[in-house]
Amino acid sequence: MFDLLKTQIGRLRLLAFAEGVSFLVILFITMPLKYYFDTPQPNKIFGLVHGLLFVLYVFWVVQIKIEQDWSFKKMGLALLASIVPFGTFWADARLFRNQNTEVR
After folding, report:
1. Alpha-carbon span 12 to 21, nearest angstrom
2. Which residue ranges does UniProt annotate as crossing the membrane (predicted)?
Protein backbone atom coordinates (compact mmCIF):
# COMPACT_ATOMS: atom_id res chain seq x y z
CA MET A 1 0.00 0.00 0.00
CA PHE A 2 2.77 2.43 0.84
CA ASP A 3 4.28 1.90 -2.61
CA LEU A 4 1.19 3.61 -4.02
CA LEU A 5 2.06 6.79 -2.13
CA LYS A 6 5.37 7.13 -3.99
CA THR A 7 3.82 8.18 -7.32
CA GLN A 8 1.27 10.72 -8.49
CA ILE A 9 -0.81 7.95 -10.07
CA GLY A 10 -0.59 5.87 -6.91
CA ARG A 11 -1.88 8.76 -4.81
CA LEU A 12 -4.66 9.32 -7.34
CA ARG A 13 -5.62 5.64 -7.11
CA LEU A 14 -5.89 5.85 -3.31
CA LEU A 15 -7.88 9.07 -3.55
CA ALA A 16 -10.18 7.53 -6.18
CA PHE A 17 -10.81 4.56 -3.89
CA ALA A 18 -11.63 6.81 -0.92
CA GLU A 19 -13.89 9.03 -3.04
CA GLY A 20 -15.69 6.00 -4.46
CA VAL A 21 -16.24 4.44 -1.05
CA SER A 22 -17.52 7.72 0.40
CA PHE A 23 -19.97 8.05 -2.52
CA LEU A 24 -21.28 4.54 -1.95
CA VAL A 25 -21.63 5.16 1.80
CA ILE A 26 -23.76 8.22 1.04
CA LEU A 27 -25.89 6.43 -1.55
CA PHE A 28 -26.49 3.17 0.27
CA ILE A 29 -26.19 3.99 3.97
CA THR A 30 -26.62 7.64 4.90
CA MET A 31 -29.32 8.55 2.36
CA PRO A 32 -31.60 5.69 3.47
CA LEU A 33 -30.94 6.69 7.09
CA LYS A 34 -31.91 10.26 6.27
CA TYR A 35 -35.07 9.55 4.28
CA TYR A 36 -36.38 6.30 5.77
CA PHE A 37 -35.34 6.65 9.40
CA ASP A 38 -35.33 10.46 9.76
CA THR A 39 -31.67 10.50 10.82
CA PRO A 40 -29.93 13.24 8.80
CA GLN A 41 -26.75 13.63 10.89
CA PRO A 42 -24.69 10.82 9.27
CA ASN A 43 -25.54 12.25 5.85
CA LYS A 44 -24.24 15.67 6.89
CA ILE A 45 -20.96 14.24 8.14
CA PHE A 46 -20.31 11.88 5.22
CA GLY A 47 -21.56 14.50 2.79
CA LEU A 48 -18.86 16.88 3.99
CA VAL A 49 -16.18 14.18 3.78
CA HIS A 50 -17.33 13.10 0.33
CA GLY A 51 -17.44 16.69 -0.90
CA LEU A 52 -13.85 17.25 0.18
CA LEU A 53 -12.70 13.99 -1.41
CA PHE A 54 -14.59 14.83 -4.62
CA VAL A 55 -12.93 18.25 -4.92
CA LEU A 56 -9.50 16.74 -4.21
CA TYR A 57 -10.12 14.04 -6.82
CA VAL A 58 -11.09 16.57 -9.50
CA PHE A 59 -8.08 18.75 -8.65
CA TRP A 60 -5.75 15.74 -8.73
CA VAL A 61 -7.07 14.48 -12.09
CA VAL A 62 -6.59 17.92 -13.68
CA GLN A 63 -3.10 18.23 -12.18
CA ILE A 64 -2.05 14.82 -13.50
CA LYS A 65 -3.58 15.58 -16.91
CA ILE A 66 -1.31 18.60 -17.15
CA GLU A 67 1.81 16.93 -15.74
CA GLN A 68 1.54 13.68 -17.69
CA ASP A 69 -0.06 15.11 -20.83
CA TRP A 70 -3.20 12.99 -20.68
CA SER A 71 -5.64 13.39 -23.53
CA PHE A 72 -8.84 15.32 -22.90
CA LYS A 73 -10.74 12.07 -23.44
CA LYS A 74 -8.85 10.32 -20.65
CA MET A 75 -9.28 13.29 -18.32
CA GLY A 76 -12.98 13.50 -19.17
CA LEU A 77 -13.49 9.80 -18.47
CA ALA A 78 -11.67 10.12 -15.15
CA LEU A 79 -13.84 13.09 -14.18
CA LEU A 80 -17.03 11.42 -15.38
CA ALA A 81 -16.16 8.38 -13.28
CA SER A 82 -16.40 10.51 -10.14
CA ILE A 83 -20.12 11.14 -10.61
CA VAL A 84 -21.16 7.59 -11.48
CA PRO A 85 -21.59 5.01 -8.70
CA PHE A 86 -18.63 2.58 -8.80
CA GLY A 87 -17.07 4.83 -11.47
CA THR A 88 -13.82 5.53 -9.66
CA PHE A 89 -13.26 1.78 -9.27
CA TRP A 90 -13.67 1.41 -13.04
CA ALA A 91 -11.29 4.34 -13.60
CA ASP A 92 -8.71 2.72 -11.35
CA ALA A 93 -8.89 -0.55 -13.27
CA ARG A 94 -9.05 0.95 -16.78
CA LEU A 95 -7.32 4.33 -16.64
CA PHE A 96 -4.93 4.50 -13.70
CA ARG A 97 -3.57 1.01 -13.04
CA ASN A 98 -1.37 0.65 -16.13
CA GLN A 99 0.26 4.05 -15.85
CA ASN A 100 3.97 4.62 -15.66
CA THR A 101 4.96 3.90 -12.06
CA GLU A 102 8.05 6.10 -12.09
CA VAL A 103 8.57 7.76 -8.70
CA ARG A 104 8.20 11.54 -8.83
Report:
1. 14
2. 12-33, 45-62, 74-91
